[in-house]
Amino acid sequence: MKTVIYTRVSSRGQEETGYSLPAQEKLNWGIRIILAKNYIENLSEEIKKGQMEKIVQGWLPGTPPRGYKLVGQEKHKIAVIDDKKAPLVIFFFQLK
Q1: H or E segment and range at residue 68
Q2: Angle CA(27)–CA(23)–CA(4) in degrees, nearest 5?
């Protein structure tokens, strides 16, 4: 199957000649766009499910909040209070 990607549906040359994409190519282009949108939405849902599963299992995906540090085994670390940084964070939040 030959893959053709068009960046613009009309150009100056097409406007002068009156040529536009054939109906079949427009249909193929529309289907590819729909499939790409579906892929992006599905990927987003899978990432959210994975992050929720990590939270349910008791560990924080990503970097810990300020005043916390990660401890534990590789890929199964949990966030605990960092005794060195926690007093500074508390102090900063008490400032007005």
Answers
A1: strand 68-73
A2: 60
Q: Are 75 and 61 in contact (CB under 8 A)?
A: no
Q: What is the separation of C-alpha 87 from the centre of its chain, rounded to a whole number of angstroms?
A: 34
Q: How far apart are CA 16 and CA 18, in angstroms?
A: 6
pLDDT tens-digit map of 34-83: 999 999 999 999 999 998 998 888 777 778 888 888 888 777 777 888 88
**How many whole angstroms separate alpha carbon 25 and alpha carbon 48?**
35
Domain edges within the chain: 1-57, 59-96
